[in-house]
Specification:
mainly alpha; two-stranded antiparallel ribbon; 5% strand
Length: 165
């Protein structure tokens, strides 16, 4: 068993719960800019989460030349699901490449720094997944501000996950 793959599989279940909730939002609310949130809209935050995976795991970790997703390239939740299907493949490729080498250090350029950065495989995986959860919380808060009552996306039991399959 690969621990990071198992961890990511659990993350995908919480993402599915969020996608199912977002599919119930009116489209205008999914793309509506809300004051007080750095990325503006639920769609923009979703795209930012995907871009983080692309940048850190794809470009920095795997040394691929991935053009990051932009919010304007996403029209609805269905499009976002397709993007995250690609993100899933990227994450699994990253995990497969560095299996059991979680402390292996990768060196690369970070756009906002002059000097190269040295980061471990575990740091990259942890950063991208916790980043997703941070913004998932913001998405849920944004939906509440728009008058929706979100489902619980934080803790899913095995029964909950079975129902999402």
């Amino acid at each position: 068993m690969n621990l990071l793959k198992s961890q990511y599989d659990l993350i995908k279940f919480t993402r599915e719960q969020l996608f199912q909730f977002c599919e119930k939002l009116h489209h205008d609310d999914y793309v509506k800019e809300i004051e007080g949130f750095g990325w503006g809209s639920i769609r923009n935050l979703h795209a930012h989460v995907a871009e983080c995976y692309q940048s850190w795991l794809g470009n920095f970790g795997l040394k691929k030349n991935i053009t990051p997703v932009t919010p304007r390239s996403v029209s609805d939740v269905s499009d976002m699901r397709e993007i995250f299907d690609e993100i899933d493949s990227l994450v699994y490729s990253f995990i497969d490449k560095f299996e059991d080498e979680y402390e292996y250090k990768l060196t690369g350029q970070v756009p906002w720094q002059e000097d190269n950065e040295e980061l471990s495989v575990l740091w990259l995986f942890t950063h991208t997944t916790t980043h997703e959860f941070h913004h998932k919380g913001q998405i849920v808060s944004m939906a509440r501000q728009l008058g929706y009552i979100p489902s619980d996306t934080d803790l899913l039991t095995p029964t909950d996950m079975k129902n999402l399959r």
